[in-house]
Amino acid sequence: MAVDRLIWKIALDFFVLLCVAFPLLGLLLWAEPYHRGYFADDYSLRLPYKQQQQLTVNAAKYVIGRLRPHFFDLCRPIPNSSSPLNELGYIQAYTCSGASAAQLKEMRLSFPSAHASFAMYTAVFFIFYIQVKGKWRGSKLLRHGCQFAALIAAWYVGLSRVVDHMHHWSDVTVGFIVGFAFGAIIFVYVLKPKKYGMPRSWETGPPEMLPQPVMSR
């Protein structure tokens, strides 16, 4: 029956969401990002720390463990001079003398920028949707203006992460690329614009343009 198929589909969707949610929850509660070292003369890590309200984590951040631009200001590292790991100016064995454990964990999650990725994903999906799926009866300039505003908003989010010293410019760039790719992929393979196609001109035109039925003799 149709009701049984609907219940089965909802249960399957819920199971898929759980499969995605549990690994993310595990990363947040138990995983530790890779402890990457630093160069003592790396001035890209000496920017001051600024407070933020949102904590964003994902698998790539934990695997790479890139240090944020405010590393020195937040960590205040004390190198272990007797460690053989600290060679050629690259300090890998050190102890942070400042900040809390949560701040130190967040400090290693710079790459890529999840804010930039999500902002670009949202903008790209919105732009494609109103361009292909929307039956636009108004001004085309207004539609393109809305698309441009969405793109500028995503661009602003990425720039704000650099200005706030939360990410390097390369983190934001990769975040934009990932967001654009996923926005386009989700739109193409979920909404399937090729299956339904662009709205034909007579669908959005005035009533007099609609095709008239052919009377049988």
From TrEMBL:
Assigned keywords, A-Z: Membrane, Transmembrane, Transmembrane helix
Lineage: superkingdom: Eukaryota
Membrane topology: Multi-pass membrane protein
Pfam families: PAP2
Protein name: Wunen
Family: Belongs to the PA-phosphatase related phosphoesterase family.
Residue ranges occupied by any Phosphatidic acid phosphatase type 2/haloperoxidase domain in the UniProt entry: 47-187
Keyword Transmembrane attached: yes
Cellular component annotations (GO), alphabetically ordered: plasma membrane
InterPro entries the record matches: PAP-like (IPR043216), PAP2/HPO (IPR000326), PAP2/HPO_sf (IPR036938)
Residue stretches spanning the membrane: 12-31, 109-129, 141-160, 172-191
Nucleus as UniProt keyword: no
Annotated compartments: Membrane
UniProt GO BP: phospholipid dephosphorylation; phospholipid metabolic process; signal transduction
PANTHER family per the UniProt record, alphabetical: LIPID PHOSPHATE PHOSPHATASE, PHOSPHOLIPID PHOSPHATASE HOMOLOG 1.2 HOMOLOG
GO MF entries: phosphatidate phosphatase activity
